[in-house]
Amino acid sequence: MNDTDPYRMLIDGKWVDGSTGERFDSLDPYRQKPWASIPQASDSDVDHAVRSARAAFETTWRKTNGGERARLMLRLADLIEAEAPRLARLETTDNGKVIRETTRQMGFAARNYRFLAGQADKLYGQTIPLDNADLFDFTLHEPAGVAALLVAWNSPIQLLTNKLAPALAAGCTVVIKPSEHASVTTLELARLAEEAGYPPGVINVVTGDGRVGAALTAHDDLDLISFTGGQRTGRLVARAAADNLVAVALELGGKSPNIVFADADLDAAIPGALAGIFGAAGQTCIAGSRLLVERPVYEEVLQQLGERTAAIRLGDPLDPDTEMGPVANQLQYDTILDYIAAAKADGARLLTGGGPADDPDLPTGYFVQPTVFADVTGDMKVASEEVFGPVLAVMPFDGEEEAIRIANSTQYGLASGLWTRSLSRAMRVAREIRAGTVWINTYRTNAAQAPFGGYKKSGFGRERGLDSLHDYLRVKNVMADLSEDVGDPFAMRV
């Protein structure tokens, strides 16, 4: 497939257009121009994909042993690694994330497939000693079945990997629905899966707008739905899953605190704060969008932060020297600017940035200035709602107890960070923060082995690491009576 070819969906091992012939353009957010043509799936296309996944699961995939599943996953990882430069370029063109990050994400995706491939033939059950010695009891871990995987636009390959790798390792078949704002690399990954040798119907991809997601999550022949995205859509997905009594896993973003104590190494903490909010132009669910700074170092941190933020290099995301590219689409661009306006109206002190980028050397892309607001209070929108953009809210605090209170004061609980030279403080605060990830003296650092997921309204379920397999497996208990006694048919045997 050439980059300029119209893309097609993968259903039951065949590359197909949507049944209605409807298509839409993917826009390059840097140049604001169409660059790829994507099919719009219909309800019948979605039904075809689910039925194909079901047939593949029942006839082939659930009976495929773990060693073979592992072999295919390792082959897919090799292909991703070989294609990493091209995949990175395509993803950067599709969503504006800088090439230095998308390149690294491709390698990280391959690592995730390799890690979970190592578990595909090790899904052990256990024998359970019972009170009654005549009963022999053991458990089996079996694949859940057909999983719908819905992926957001900010990191398509990595977000898909978080779901697809454990699904394949567990023995599930899948129907994938990428965001209409960034579908290309998901389709490219499906091509690589086909090349790796996955049987038809194991991996299916349907593309299009919210109509496709609604049809997929409402389908009555799914066993699991895994969704990454915003709260509003997450609620719709959860309702659809409830209607059909389908298991659901949600990752719904955050308003993560990044806490700098007075004894922190500021030479490390300031770059950590920058990474937390301006990496990926702030369009990441783990963005450290609330910077909590202990008062003795508050002004010093603000001074250094303002200087470093003002020097961030905006530009072509395909240029390796660019540090921050455009935001991904018009809707997000408008949303970010609305939050900036709200912060100003609420009385936050603008330290730097505060609007559209005005560099005459930039094209008419969706560029927002890296923005820092100081003296933010908890009642401001910029402190409590997810902006999903390069906007940092800096909040002072006095002492450990207040830092923990502010950190836990939002509805979210996905990620957090803290900076201190005190090991005892680090351990105390880490225990008290209500978030699925706590980074100590680092931020936005990931590992294939480490589980990821949220507390509170940041969702439920875990991705990456061994815990990610739980959503895609079901535990079956098997009990055998080894005695020759005939029991009382009118009393439960224990």
TrEMBL record:
Domain Aldehyde dehydrogenase: 15-478
Pfam families: Aldedh (PF00171)
Alphabetical UniProt keywords: Oxidoreductase
Annotated GO MF terms: oxidoreductase activity, acting on the aldehyde or oxo group of donors, NAD or NADP as acceptor
Residues annotated as signal peptide: none
Superkingdom of origin organism: Bacteria
Keyword Oxidoreductase carried by entry: yes
Catalytic residues in the record: E251
Family statement: Belongs to the aldehyde dehydrogenase family.
Name of this protein: Aldehyde dehydrogenase
Source species: Actinomadura syzygii
